Amino acid sequence: MTQEPVSLAQALASFTDRWSPRIVTAVNDYDVRVAKVEGEHVWHVHDHTDEFFLVLDGELRIALREPAGERSVVLPRGSVFTVPRGTEHKPSASVPTTILMFEPTGTLTVGDRHEKVPAHVDATTGHALS
Question: Where is the Cupin type-2 domain (predicted)?
């Protein structure tokens, strides 16, 4: 990890892949990741960690399967939302969207349990910035 400031605009300009987060820095045992997203991710669960989302640009929808039933939250630009650990969820974006996430280092983007991962989703623990 660099000890220099990181421009999020430059970090986001350094890649084009969708659903393939880049690690921009770390805070304690957490990665700070940015990603470009569009289309649907995959239904998945993080059994041992919450997942924090900040929408930098665009709009993110997160479908949630909760004990009370299924619902969706819509996050416009500048919005934050935390998916509680153990909650099955599926992010999606109908327009090109950029997001920032906090996740424990080593957390797989498709969670601990997930449905079949489509080709457009990168099952990774995050990529270093190039």
Answer: 35-93
21 by DSSP, 3-state: which?
A: coil
User: Does the 8-121 domain belong in CATH 2.60.40.420?
Assistant: no
Residue 115 in this model has a pLDDT that exceeds 80: no
- The CA angle 109-46-60, to the nearest 5 degrees, is 60
Is the CB of residue 53 less than 8 Å from the CB of residue 101? yes
Taking the complete model, does pTM exceed 0.85, yes or no? yes
Residues 103-112 pLDDT 10s: 999 998 888 8
